Amino acid sequence: MPEPLLDPILAHLSYETIEMLRSFRHERSFKELATNFGRDERTVSRQLLELDRAFFQSQKVHIIEREAGRKTYRLTKAGEVFVARLQVVAKETRSAIDAATAATRRIPVLCTSNCMKYLRALSDALPGTINSLPSFHVVPAPRRTAEVDLMFQEGEPDYDIKVRLLSILMSSEQDPAIGVVTHWREHVQILPLRLDPINLLCLEDLGLREPVNVRDLIEAGVTFLTPPGGVVWEFLNRSFPGWWKLRPFQHIPVPDLDCGLKCLSNRLVPRAAMVVHGFDPLKNPQYGLDRARLYRFSIRDSHQFMAVTGVFNLLHDSDSADHRDPYKIIWEAAMTLWAKEEQAL
Question: What is the pTM of this model?
């Protein structure tokens, strides 16, 4: 009779069985294992005991034994050694699964509308293959600025998207510099791509001397067209905390920059203005704002705030150290493209 093509132990060693054995080191109960894996207790016990029998038939040692005077089971010394070695098998099996699906993986990168060109450049810079494995595809997770939670807190809808392209408000005291990676806050890195001053855009002569400040604008009856979130919203609130509660009639919420600019150009709101960054009316003739005026804000009153557009990398506590982690690869590609150190070389 020909020998079997597959070792009897391997024949019973599925990926699920490996995970069960690893959990069994701590649980020691078929019932708890069944609950954790969503299986019937009888199915779990049969699966592990059949593996033990195959192990004994092949190697003449048991890997599972009943504890003396109890109905529970435990791993034998041979079982402990076997399961410890299975840690490597489980990791390699997981890597093989990831590699097999890499060619069709779509990795979302959160991106606001003003950063689409950066996402295109970043996508083009990604390697075609990674460690001889098929690459993944970067796809945008488009968001309005007001929709983005700038606190990057666990539990937010986009928390698992670790790489983001967007703009935030920063102070000159934080010393942001283009192409220099810095920690924006704990567990969040930023690679600034551009720094823009905060300006006021309007069509009418407001009768105010430049530079202007937020409190004087509100007292002069200016109505702000602004999204209820993002860089502009934070700038206004920091400059005049609670202004929108005190003067709700001087706030017209708009969903995004495009909508606000169209409202402004069509003069739909008397004495209206927008707080903008990185916007030049002369370079955007489609809005018909060629006669619009940009006012500078007082540096003293605005605490030297600026809009910083860049790539954000979230350092979650559960981040994998695996170099093949797609978000790590995207972050490294961004640094290769835009970091000063790389440009100097």
Answer: 0.66
